[in-house]
């Protein structure tokens, strides 16, 4: 693979994020796995709807060695030197590569473009190990997909990281109506860690234009369903990691 694309970087403010309980959801004390109590009156009902692919564990070895090589370079450029690749998963023409060392982790998404080049998006998670999901951990990295003349033809959006607790389904409802469910994969080095990733390539509309004013875009909605259930509404400006 050739033609390494732009990489997203971590940052941004979570002041504008919103959180609402799912209808029929339960809340959980993360310090006691499996323990749950009824939530209060739900404020929102979020249905991720049909998506591709379903939330099915995928991956395993042998890995795509070209992806490993591209991501090793991209992760190092983002300050991730000294961490190792621990898993890969595939999702609709792209491969997500997961890198970790202790509480540090990075997700590297490599999309094969129609012209034979690749678009690489790196999403550093910073320090892991929290007791639950936070809005900042759900933010999207993005990279422009460019045509032969160098002009942007689409935008690739990626989110991912290490699961803080068991999750049955993680769904993204994008402002343009696209819905995607996360793909899960387990680490291969025996740690038992499970990783998730969501990828979406917007080819038309406001999300496909890097120059779109975030104030003109509806919020991103993320639903997390497992031993606990939560929904997050992130204003589009806060839904994206700052460049």
TrEMBL record:
Residues 1-66 are annotated as: Disordered. Residues 1-10 have a biased composition (Low complexity). This is DUF3558 domain-containing protein.
């Amino acid at each position: 693979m050739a033609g390494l694309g732009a990489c997203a970087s971590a940052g941004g403010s979570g002041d504008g994020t919103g959180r609402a309980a799912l209808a029929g959801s339960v809340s959980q004390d993360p310090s006691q796995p499996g323990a749950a109590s009824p939530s209060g009156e739900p404020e929102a009902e979020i249905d991720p709807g049909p998506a591709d692919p379903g939330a099915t564990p995928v991956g395993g070895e042998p890995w795509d060695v070209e992806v490993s090589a591209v991501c090793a370079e991209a992760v190092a450029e983002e300050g991730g030197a000294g961490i190792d690749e621990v898993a890969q998963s595939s999702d609709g023409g792209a491969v997500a590569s997961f890198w970790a060392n202790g509480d540090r982790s990075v997700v590297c998404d490599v999309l094969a473009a129609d012209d034979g080049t690749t678009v690489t998006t790196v999403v550093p998670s910073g320090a892991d190990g929290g007791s639950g999901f936070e809005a900042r951990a759900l933010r999207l990295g993005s990279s422009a997909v460019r045509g032969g003349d160098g002009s942007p033809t689409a935008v690739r959006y990626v989110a991912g990281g290490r699961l803080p607790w068991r999750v049955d389904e993680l769904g993204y409802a994008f402002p343009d109506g696209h819905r995607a469910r996360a793909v899960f994969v387990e680490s291969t080095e025996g740690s038992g860690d499970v990783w998730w990733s969501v990828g979406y390539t917007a080819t038309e509309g406001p999300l496909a234009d890097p120059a779109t004013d975030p104030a003109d875009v509806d919020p991103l909605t993320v639903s997390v369903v497992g031993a606990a259930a939560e929904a997050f509404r992130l204003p589009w400006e806060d839904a994206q990691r700052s460049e």
